[in-house]
Structure formats: structure tokens, C-alpha cells
Write a structure and sequence with these properties.
Oligomer: single chain
CATH architecture of the largest domain: 3-Layer(aba) Sandwich
Structural class: alpha+beta
Shape: globular
Strand content: 15-25%
CATH class of the largest domain: Alpha Beta
CATH superfamily of the largest domain: Zn peptidases
Radius of gyration: 24 Å
Distance between the termini: 26 Å
Helix content: 25-40%
Number of domains: 2
Order of helices and strands: HHEEEHEHHEHEEEHEEEEHEEHEHEH
Number of strands: 16
């Protein structure tokens, strides 16, 4: 059984496979692999080949996912995505595809495949880099594909639906990608952390507790433009000064909700008229606020709106705020968390509980079945960047933990 596992060898094999995938790029000097591109086709063919080599029955659905199955339903579904951002690292996504392939290969070689159905999926479009789409490939598998995706266009004006056809798929058959609810036992994904917590804890693996909820707001502050040299300070209605105070308020609120791990970011700010010698009359800025507690997030948003309005009133400014994006917290299944933690602990590592501040295909798959994630330590917490790095040692431990999880898997609570 799994006492014969060799995490070091598994890590080296994973690194070699990830290097091979990373060589498939639209550009010679950086990793760019967009959904439904020629590079995606090559990567999908390579992943399909790997799946066949470990004994999986391989097929592609009409949303371009590569899928391999063994056994009968209900399936334990494992996987991640093979599309990338622009100028990507090589671990975000592909690690979660390579890991279950290596896990199943190891179990097959040890004649230790458990009597459960397993499906491995290489999702085609998680990053949304080409069409600014929102998880269409996992949504289709979960039975929640939104036809509005069809009208999205890439930078060259090619629509999502036309790209599907050019890739050889039939948009009218996307519904066939869905796994019937009773045929999906659980979905589990291995992914680099994309953050610094595991490195700070000096542990290789984390068990994800939830994908955090997110609120994104567009705030507008209205004052009065005026000459920078002739309007006295006490008579100014400076929209930018008011917005700056509100940005500091955002930071203060996030710190004061520390027990709920609130993170808040003013990521974009625009001042008008935007001249060096004119007092800004109108400022617009975004607020991105995330936490694993919907109640805490809603309370933080309410507090920001109330106190920002007070800042505006004190300064004689107009203030309005509009929601532009809202995603509820997606908790991971407690039973899967427990099983993953047990698998990690059996290898001598400490399973650090950690929330994911980024979105993943699990957001959609959780609509279908119980969902869990295992995070792998990444150097400096860097992701979506060529400097992204997970060591072979850590990847090997993650794959070994996945093997133990598969061996002991029980239907989630």
C-alpha cells in the first residue's frame, strides 16, 4: 500500500511534467496559453496522452475540457486548469492536473487502486484571460453554464462561440459536459497557495477551509474643481483629498476585522480633470473586500459606506457607491477537510487550515458536489508571475497526501 510511497520521486516527476507543459506557449519568452488556442490544443493532447498512459478512459467535452475516467460513478473528481494568464508561472493550474495523474499512476503500479470511480479533469478556461469569462468550463461540468459567455469577445474580436466552433466543438452540446448530481461524490483540487501563509508557517501543505466571498464596489467622490494657486485651503472641496481619507479608512476597517481575516484593497483610482494645477473635482475608486465570513464582509461594507459618507459630509463632498461584483463565500466540505488533514498528518506534516483569497473552479463545482482543496507552499507567495515556484519536495508531499486521501476516501458529509 502507500507505505511504499516515494514523495521525492513524485516531486521530480511532477516538475518534469510541468516543465514539458510550460514549453507549450504562444510566445517564446513568456508563458501564454489561452483557452481554445493552438497552444491549448497541444497542451490538451499532451495531458490526454498522460491520462491514457495511466489507464484512464479519455474524452473531451464540448467546452474543451480534457477528461479521464476509471471505474464507475459516483466519481471522485480531481483536477484543475491548463489555461494561463499572460506571462504566467508554470504551477498555477497544471500542478492540479499533473498531481492526480501521478497519484493514479502510483496506485496502479502498486496494484492499490481503490474500488471507487475517479475522474480527472483538465479544465479549459479558469483564468478568463482570453474572453474575460468566469469559470465557464467548470460551470458546464457542474451543470451551470451561462449562455451569456457565447457573446464574449477576445482582443481580436473573435467571439467565444466562434472560438468553440473553430476548436472543433459544438456549442449546442455543452450541456452534455455536466456530471449528473448523483454521479459526483466530491471534487478535490491541488493548487499552489498563491500567498505567503504556508511559507511563514514553515509547512508544505494547507487544507483549504473556504474560498472567500468578495465584494467589489465603485465609489465616486464629487467636489469642486478649482485653481491650485488661488483657492484657499479652508475653502476647498478637494475630491481627491476626501478619497484619500476614505482609502485609509478601508485599511483601518480591514485591520479592525482582523479576527475574520478581512482583506481590503483600493486598487484603482482616477481623478478628474487630472491636471497638475487643478484641484480634483471628481474622483472614482474601486474597493475590493474579501473574507471567508459573509457576515463580516457585509458588516465591513456597511461600515465603509457609513463612515465614508461621514467623511464626505464633513468635507462638503458628494459621495455615492455602487456594487459591481459580489460572490458569496464557498465553504469547503468539513468531511473532505478532515480527510485531507488526516492524509497530510500521516506524512508528518502539519495540515495548516487556510482560506483561499483567490477564486477557483471549486466555486462552480461546489454547486454540484462536496468540494475540498489542498494548498502547496509557493516561494514568496508569488503567483501569476514567471517567478512562481513550488519545490519538487513540497509537490511530492502533496501528491503523496493525495494518494493517501484517495485510498481512504469516504463519501463527504
Amino acid at each position: 500500500m502507500s507505505n511504499a510511497l516515494n514523495p521525492a520521486d513524485l516531486g521530480r516527476r511532477a516538475e518534469a511534467m510541468l516543465d514539458e507543459l510550460a514549453a507549450i506557449s504562444a510566445e517564446p519568452d513568456r508563458l501564454v496559453r489561452l483557452t481554445m488556442s493552438p497552444e491549448h490544443r497541444r497542451a490538451a493532447d499532451l495531458v490526454g496522452q498522460w491520462m491514457r498512459e495511466v489507464g484512464l478512459e479519455v474524452f473531451e467535452d464540448h467546452i474543451c475540457n480534457v477528461r479521464g475516467r476509471i471505474g464507475k460513478p459516483p466519481y471522485l473528481v480531481l483536477g484543475s486548469h491548463i489555461d494561463t494568464v499572460i506571462d504566467a508561472g508554470r504551477y498555477d493550474g497544471p500542478l492540479g492536473v499533473v498531481a492526480p495523474i501521478l497519484a493514479l499512476d502510483t496506485l496502479r503500479r502498486m496494484n492499490a487502486l481503490p474500488p471507487i470511480g475517479i475522474e480527472v479533469i483538465a479544465f479549459s478556461d479558469e483564468e478568463g484571460s482570453r474572453f474575460h469569462s468566469t469559470l465557464p468550463s467548470s460551470a458546464a461540468v457542474a451543470g451551470h453554464f451561462d449562455p451569456k459567455h457565447f457573446d464574449l469577445k477576445d482582443a481580436q474580436g473573435i467571439s467565444f462561440v466562434d472560438a468553440l466552433r473553430a476548436y472543433g466543438k459544438d456549442p449546442s452540446k455543452i450541456h452534455e459536459a455536466a456530471i449528473p448530481r448523483r454521479q459526483a461524490a466530491a471534487f478535490v483540487e491541488i493548487h499552489i497557495e498563491q500567498g505567503p501563509v504556508l511559507e511563514a508557517e514553515n509547512q508544505p501543505l494547507g487544507v483549504v477551509t473556504a474560498i472567500v466571498g468578495q465584494t467589489r464596489l465603485q465609489a465616486s467622490v464629487t467636489g469642486e474643481a478649482g485653481h491650485a494657486g488661488t483657492v484657499p485651503m479652508k475653502l476647498r472641496r478637494d475630491a481627491l483629498a476626501g478619497a484619500a481619507e476614505m482609502a485609509l479608512l478601508v485599511e483601518k476597517i480591514a485591520h479592525e476585522f482582523a479576527g475574520d481575516a478581512v482583506v481590503a484593497t483600493v486598487g484603482k483610482i482616477e481623478a478628474q480633470p487630472g491636471a497638475a494645477n487643478i484641484i480634483p473635482g471628481v474622483v472614482r475608486f474601486t474597493l475590493d473586500l474579501r473574507t471567508a465570513s459573509d457576515a463580516a464582509r457585509n458588516a465591513a461594507v456597511e461600515r465603509f459606506e457609513r463612515e465614508a459618507k461621514a467623511i464626505a459630509d464633513r468635507r462638503g463632498l458628494g459621495f455615492s457607491v455602487d456594487p459591481i461584483h459580489e460572490i458569496a463565500t464557498t465553504p469547503c466540505d468539513p468531511g473532505i477537510q478532515e480527510q485531507l488533514a488526516r492524509a497530510v498528518g500521516s506524512l508528518g506534516a502539519v495540515p495548516i487550515p487556510i482560506a483561499s483569497g483567490a477564486g477557483h473552479d471549486g466555486l462552480m463545482m461546489a454547486k454540484l458536489c462536496p468540494f475540498g482543496m489542498l494548498f502547496v507552499r509557493c516561494k514568496g507567495g508569488v503567483s501569476h508571475n514567471p517567478a512562481e515556484y513550488a519545490s519538487p519536495e513540497d509537490m511530492g508531499i502533496a501528491i503523496a497526501a493525495l494518494i493517501k486521501f484517495i485510498e481512504e476516501f469516504r463519501t463527504a458529509s
